[in-house]
Design goal:
The chain contains five helices and ten strands; from the N terminus they run βαβββαβαββββαβα. It starts with a strand and ends with a helix. By secondary structure, the protein is of the alpha/beta class. It is globular and about 40 Å long. The strands form three sheets. The chain has a five-stranded mixed β-sheet with strand order 6-5-7-9-8, with helices on one face.
């Protein structure tokens, strides 16, 4: 997720934020020669098939809490996915407004979250408070999934670990559920320290939303990022009953955020989550 230049998460309940689908018309040759850091046509086509914005794809080395890196692709600014994960998702599983995918967390389930406190990846005091508020946001909904929260360094047994990346940027990165479990790694950028606790809460809630299967609510236009007129192929998108089909300015799952967020779910975010869980 990034600020108005940087936000990313559509709540339209799909744990893939898909701002828009860009058609790839060229024939695909996965083994064609390409520059070392260039994203192949094969990957862009797969991203497009999953109804994500294939213009916003880049190779990515995701920092983990122990200082190691995991290679994956960064989609729409804050969604981390490996090629193997892309292959497990079907384009017919992608849904629309509020939107979701079929990759959800098994319910009922208790999701155990740890805020990381070790070394340079440790959350700051402000981020720890924001994480507490974010977890409270979810537990207040009384869904089939509930959350526990602790702080420490032994993150291996936990379902989700929330930690900091000292890259100086604003926003964060997460991924989507797999095998009925939430995405484990929720990375918060160190530039968030320049924002107040409520805006940090917003980013935490947004990225955890991806981890449990939420998609960017404005995946079809990225209107929250100041973009417009970017058409999105609606094939495979299924509307969640009780939620709007147009732009929802109050959604916490918008692709971009501002500097004065209140950190709370919009009304239809809650409707969508309660429908899913």
């Amino acid at each position: 997720m990034k600020t108005i230049k940087l936000l990313t998460l559509l709540f339209a309940i799909s744990f893939f934020a898909s701002c828009e689908k860009d058609q790839v018309s060229e024939s695909v040759n996965p083994v064609a020669e390409k520059a070392p850091d260039e994203v192949s046509k094969h990957i862009r086509e797969k991203v497009s098939d999953l109804h994500f914005n294939s213009k916003h794809v880049e190779k990515h080395k995701m920092l983990l809490p122990d200082g190691s890196f995991m290679e994956n692709y960064l989609i729409e600014g804050d969604i981390a996915m490996t090629e193997e994960q892309m292959q497990t998702m079907s384009s017919v599983s992608v849904t629309d407004k509020q939107y979701r995918t079929y990759n959800l967390v098994s319910s009922p389930k208790t999701i155990n979250v740890i805020g990381y406190t070790g070394g340079s990846q440790a959350l700051t005091s402000k981020q720890r408070t924001a994480l507490e508020w974010a977890i409270n946001n979810y537990n207040r909904l009384n869904m089939g999934i509930t959350f526990t929260l602790t702080f420490g360094t032994n993150y291996s047994p936990y379902d989700i670990v929330v930690y900091q990346n000292q890259n100086g940027e604003a926003g964060g990165v997460a991924g989507f559920p797999s095998g009925g479990d939430p995405y484990k790694y929720v990375q918060i950028y160190s530039g968030m320290e320049a924002y107040d606790t409520n805006t940090n809460e917003h980013v935490m809630t947004h990225e955890i939303g991806h981890s449990v299967g939420l998609r960017h609510t404005d995946w079809f236009s990225r209107q929250s990022c100041g973009q417009s007129g970017e058409s999105a192929d609606p094939d495979g998108a299924v509307h969640i009953p009780g939620t709007p089909t147009g732009f929802d300015s109050n959604s916490i799952m918008l692709a971009c955020f501002s500097a004065n967020e209140d950190g709370e779910f919009g009304y239809y975010d809650s409707v969508a989550l309660n429908y899913l869980y």
